[in-house]
Description:
The structure holds two protein chains of two kinds.
Chain A: H1 6-12, E1 35-37, E2 40-45, E3 50-54, E4 60-63, E5 69-75, E6 81-91, E7 109-119, E8 122-127, E9 135-138, E10 144-148, E11 167-172, E12 178-182, E13 189-192, E14 198-203, E15 206-211, E16 216-222, E17 233-238, E18 244-249, E19 254-259, E20 264-269, E21 274-280, E22 285-290, E23 293-301, E24 306-311, E25 318-321, E26 325-329, E27 338-343, E28 349-353, E29 358-363, E30 369-374, H2 384-390, E31 394-399, E32 405-409, E33 414-422, E34 425-432, E35 437-442, E36 449-453, E37 458-463, E38 469-473, E39 479-484, E40 489-494
Antiparallel strand pairs in A: 1-2, 2-3, 3-4, 5-6, 6-7, 7-8, 9-10, 10-11, 11-12, 13-14, 14-15, 15-16, 17-18, 18-19, 19-20, 21-22, 22-23, 23-24, 25-26, 26-27, 27-28, 29-30, 30-31, 31-32, 33-34, 34-35, 35-36, 37-38, 38-39, 39-40
Chain B: E1 4-5, E2 13-14, H1 19-26, E3 68-69, E4 73-78, E5 83-88, E6 94-98, E7 103-108, E8 114-119, E9 124-129, E10 135-139, E11 146-149, E12 155-159, E13 179-184, E14 190-194, E15 201-204, E16 210-214, E17 218-223, E18 231-235, E19 246-251, E20 257-262, E21 268-272, E22 277-281, E23 287-292, E24 298-303, E25 308-313, E26 321-325, E27 334-337, E28 343-347, E29 355-360, E30 366-370, E31 377-380, E32 386-391, E33 410-415, E34 421-425, E35 430-435, E36 441-446, E37 451-456, E38 462-466, E39 471-476, E40 483-487, E41 493-498, E42 503-508
Antiparallel strand pairs in B: 1-2, 3-4, 4-5, 5-6, 7-8, 8-9, 9-10, 11-12, 12-13, 13-14, 15-16, 16-17, 17-18, 19-20, 20-21, 21-22, 23-24, 24-25, 25-26, 27-28, 28-29, 29-30, 31-32, 32-33, 33-34, 35-36, 36-37, 37-38, 39-40, 40-41, 41-42
Amino acid sequence: MNPALFLPLLAFTGCDLWPSTTDSYMGSLWSTSIVTLDDGVYARLPEAGALVRIGTDQTWQVVDLKGAEPLSIRPDAGKNRLLVHAQWPVCEDQDSAIKRVDDCPENALSYRTELAIIDNGRRTATASIPTHMNAMTFTPDGTTALAFMDDASDSTNVSGPIVDLSEVILLDLDSGDTTSVSVGFMPKNILFTADGQRAVIMSRSKVVVLDLESQSITVEYPLTLDADIEIDPSAAVLTPDERYVLIAIEGTNDLYKLDLEVVSIDMEALDSSPSDMSADPENGQTVLVYRDRAQVDVITEHDFIERTTIGLDDPASDIAMGAGTAVLYNASNNSVRDIVLLNLGDHETTEYVASNPVDSLQLSPEGDYAVATLKPSSSGYGTGLDAYQRSRWGLAVADLLSNDIVSLVLESQPIGLEMVQTDEGAFALLLLSGFDSLIQVDLSAPGNYSTIELPSDPAGIDASPNGGFTIAHDSSLGQISFLDPATGTIKTTSGFATAGWMDEDTLPRRDSE
Amino acid sequence: MKFGLLHLGLVPLLTSCSEAALSKALSSEDAEMADAGSAAENYDDGDYGAEDGFAPEEEEELLALLPATTPEYVFVANPDRNTVTRISVPALSVITTEVGSNPISVAVTPDHATAVTFNMNSNDISIIDAATLEVQTVGVREGRNEMVMSPDGEWVICFFNQDSDEVGSRSGGAQSFNDISLVNIRTLEHFPMVVGPNPRGVHFSADGAIGVIVSDAYLSRIDLTADEPEPEHIQITDDLIDPPLAEEVVLDPMGATAIVRQFGATDLVHVDLDLLERTPLDVGDNPTDLDITPDGTELVVVARGSGELWVYDLADPFDSQSVLSLPDETVFGSVVLSPDNARGLLYSTASGASLYASWDRGSDAVVLRDLVKPVQGVGISPTGGTAIISHSAANGTDVDASSPYYNRPALSLVDLDTFFGTSLALPAEPTQFANTPDGETGFFVMDGQPYLEVLNFKTLIHDEIELKSNPVHLGTLLDTDTAFISQEHHLGRISFFHPEDGDLQTITGFELNANIEQ
């Protein structure tokens, strides 16, 4: 399978594919939630209030944020630029004797925030994006970001005296220019047409179409006529021909179909509320699964919805799309262990049963394998080897070209899983908590794995745009390993977390610069 | 007559199907009958005083916010939104336009070019260009609650019908119940005028040149070809203190003659609309139904009390009459004529007998025939080939408990060439019927059943199409074989069924389209 096929699908998921990295702060000098770009690896240094770029050759440099402290970092869509939410102190007392932040009287001290755009280690632009806007999605060409507040995330940040929860901000990633657009309360799902001309933004009881060139709303679709009824979209997908937007609604069986061409609304009564929907560009279909119903629906005709229902043994909550196939699994129900391959050409299904419930699932780059991390079963361990397996974390490899599935027992909880395709085949790279080796699983023979010794326990793994991988280690002074999957060689850079640690907390005076 | 109120955005009112309505629904040829397009009179019978001991023959009427159709469009009024939705067929693209307040009815001109809504709360009508949806508004008299369009689509008349469930808008000031608004929808001229007390219905001549408003004691004739139309009133009873209600009025296609059947009267009333003269017309005892033949030349009256069928030549009804004695094994109170005028079906909704009779118009032979249950309503397919007879759940006098139709509604199909028939036991009473213009396919829907039933009039086989929700209205797009079924849904739902390929296309939520902002 060509991994490029995934790219348009990913663009339409509307999800925040590049979550910001404010978590995993270990109380040490650095946050292991790193971002790997093609020019290096970026990490936050909370103690120093700095951002550091780490190279492969035991080098690093502190990125100049003009006195600001990075609060969160995220890559842009192409992993070319880094977006940094940062804040800096402002002391209204202009006394020249005030050199450090601590010197500023408390009543004169305030903080301001910005989004800094870092390109190749340099702050090339800044934008006024409030820090409560904790979600961001990108146009297909990657030149524009839409920032909004994602109510599903854990941010409770209130930045500024007023927070407009109906606002999205368009950010030009080259210039840093921003445009605020009011789109409706709690925007949460944003889809883009492939040409990047339009964004479809779902919010409570309303959907708008945003023309990205004029940065104005061209169509506003109501989802209800009764202001007392709150309609919250739970999932949305653009049909393969991009004419329709299908919107599932939380708590109802109604599927809204918004016609973007002949502007109108139609609705389809489903059997339940879909938990996931995906477009199948190869066959011009849309796949729907339900968390609470053991069936998958395939919409084969979108003009007047024609739907084929295929029964499953157990409900599936999630879809991983391949080329002409869909892999259905359930990551929300601890009693379901099924992984189902749906051939979207003939609607035939192949059922695989893993040993344990699925925690997460990925397809190999060419789509020949589905690799799932398995979580301990919450009930019914059984006895003997069943109990041994079900009470532990696991890894399942389903061969999608056959009926075979292998479930392996893991020593500890997986903390990172990446896929790699080489001339020798497809491999899964697995990191386990407290296990100081990288496990490389040959997906054609999952039991035959190899290990690559790491300098210390891993904390996470991140794919690099150049095909390599970066492994963050559980090391207080900062340690990152660079893995070349082709050769299996590892280079490690350590100690970067000390950068700026001992520096004084100098008060920036941006106004006087 | 029973009305069931449905609180739906699309259709606020629906009744069970009546004999009259069933007949109209099943015969497109009825459009040529003089009383087509009229707002039929529906009276509270009270103590009807029938002398034969039977209840009156039921003349129920479907009152509903029926969508208006052309071959290309369906217009659906949305009273709660003050809008009209136009659905294009077959693309099913939806466009909504704003009209006046509370549009309670919509009609389309026969040239399909214009739709008209009567907006009860704003006391106006919206005249809508069907293609462009450009809207023009004409005010009408305050407080009217019903609109009728003339057959040529040139005029509409808005009046206050006391029997309507719509109350009309009230401003609190003086109110007249018998003034009407006559509006020319081409010139947008409005002619207010006063007619007799308590207007109950409006009739037009087939060419739309004459309009007749029926009220308690008068017929008001309006020459619609005049530059300034004015009403001419004809008293139809001598008793102006307690006038007998005009139970049924038919108009000949030319608009020259009206025949009135009054409650409790022993004669019919013949009204010469040209001379404005009223003359009693002899008839048998207890006339219960009158119809003008499809060719417009004769009047047929069922005299239930004397068991006779009276046939009048409308050109000379006083001297050219024939009386046919009906079989005395049962009573007959209603007649339905086939569109080709070749035969009639005689029945009674009041006798409780599971019988009907065929009447061959050529030979005048009347043959009594058996049914599975008593008759609730009768219709004939547009080509006259098949009769559709509905039966209620009531068992009448002769249905045994062992019958599979006992306590169940039913529907009978009868081939009118051979009188071979079949009957369907139904889970609920049919509420609406429709058919294709070629007379090959019929449709019906039932109360509370999410199905469209499809009848093949040739084979008498039926098929069932599952709908997304319970049906509210059923019809066919004008001059097409496509059936439309509006259904219960708070945001509007309508399906289109194409019998040629069996496709059912449904759009839902189209009322939301009114609020799309571009």
